[in-house]
Automatic annotation (TrEMBL):
Keyword set includes Lyase: yes
Protein name as catalogued: ADP-dependent (S)-NAD(P)H-hydrate dehydratase
Gene source species: Nicoliella lavandulae
Function: Catalyzes the dehydration of the S-form of NAD(P)HX at the expense of ADP, which is converted to AMP. Together with NAD(P)HX epimerase, which catalyzes the epimerization of the S- and R-forms, the enzyme allows the repair of both epimers of NAD(P)HX, a damaged form of NAD(P)H that is a result of enzymatic or heat-dependent hydration.
Enzyme Commission number(s) of this protein: 4.2.1.136
Length: 276
């Protein structure tokens, strides 16, 4: 039976911070992505992770993106994703990895993705978005033992699952592929659904004002931030999906279009209003 993601989901998840805590309490995220052409995607994902409250954030990207990322977000550490030793150690040191936002699909991107998938350990959580999903589908890459969270839009889900867009309305078909992948699947659309081991949740927030490039990159970073901080992974994913679109709904009351960076700036306020 379909369950719904509501304000109650967010309030059940977002916790008042204990006084006796420090940055290590809130998780270390490593994000990997941002080719020379798609730097904006990894900047939005990184900002979303930091504004969601992740304790420590490291971004591995093409060096051409370093200055623009730091100009917006001095809080993030940045390294070159071509440096394989650095890539491996940054992945090993993370609680949560986010890969694929603006990664692209060329040979460099494929090699970087393979290195990350080879390095991930079973106790880690990895959010697989955008180009990383396309690469896994195209090259039939095998998946690591880890907590896998895929965040496909409908075309990416078609590439990964083989399910046509009309057939994606069939929850049982999506579920069957989720079971094969043994992953959490966030199937993004105007009514985003979250497939977990035991449940299917449908989001109740969202607006066509969100239909703009970078919106999914922002969600991937938010999911990373929520999963890094809140121990129930399914609730953390569902709450990030809810918050991303609830903030957009609020802004869309007065705006024709809502930009990803505008959502990002409102995350801390949303979390404060819903902490419990
Ligand atoms: N500023 C930046 O740096 C940005 C960087 N980005 C990065 O770019 C990379 C590629 O990601 P991508 O999603 O743009 O391309 P891709 O996977 O080929 O999908 C496009 C194809 O799928 C279709 N399609 C798409 N959505 C659909 C849907 N919901 N339902 C149905 N169909 C849908 C679409 O159809 P069409 O629009 O042509 O009708 C088209 O054929 C990725 O790494 C991402 O992070 C972007 O985030 C933008 C901002
Ligand atoms: N009409 C809509 N209503 C609600 N949400 C939408 C709508 N259109 C797009 N979105 C949301 O915007 C995001 C788009 O993700 P994606 O296609 O990966 O964007 P990008 O890769 O450009 O960042 C998803 O979270 C999706 O749910
Ligand atoms: Mg995307």
């Amino acid at each position: 039976m379909m369950k719904y993601i509501t304000e109650a989901t967010a309030k059940q998840t977002i916790r008042i911070r204990p006084t006796d805590s420090f940055k290590g309490t809130y998780g270390h995220i490593t994000l990997v992505g941002g080719s020379q052409n798609f730097g904006g995607a990894i900047i939005m994902a990184t900002m979303a992770a930091v504004y969601s409250g992740a304790g420590l954030v490291t971004t591995l990207t093409d060096p051409v993106n370093r200055t623009s990322l730091h100009a917006q977000l001095p809080e993030a550490m940045v390294a070159d994703y071509h440096d394989e030793a650095m890539l491996k150690s940054s992945v090993s040191g993370a609680d949560v990895i986010v890969i694929g936002c603006g990664l692209g699909t060329d040979d460099d991107a494929l090699n970087i993705l393979k290195t990350v998938l080879d390095t991930v350990q079973p106790d880690q959580k990895i959010i697989i978005d955008g180009s990383a999903i396309t690469l896994i589908a195209t090259h039939h890459l095998s998946l690591p033992k880890a907590h896998l969270i895929f965040t496909p839009h409908q075309m990416e889900w078609k590439r990964l699952s083989g399910i046509s867009l009309p057939d994606q309305a069939d929850v049982d078909k999506n579920k069957a592929v989720r079971d094969q992948l043994n992953a959490t699947v966030v199937l993004k659309s105007s009514h985003t659904q979250v497939y977990t081991a035991n449940d299917v949740f449908e989001n109740t927030t969202g607006t066509p004002a969100q239909a703009t490039g970078g919106m999914g990159d922002t969600l991937a970073g938010m999911i990373g931030g929520f999963v890094a901080q809140f121990s129930n992974v399914d609730l953390a994913v569902a709450s990030a999906v809810y918050a991303h679109s609830a903030i957009a709904d609020e802004l869309a009351q007065h705006q024709y279009v809502v930009l990803p960076h505008q959502i990002i700036h409102h995350i801390p306020e949303f979390m404060k209003a819903n902490e419990a």
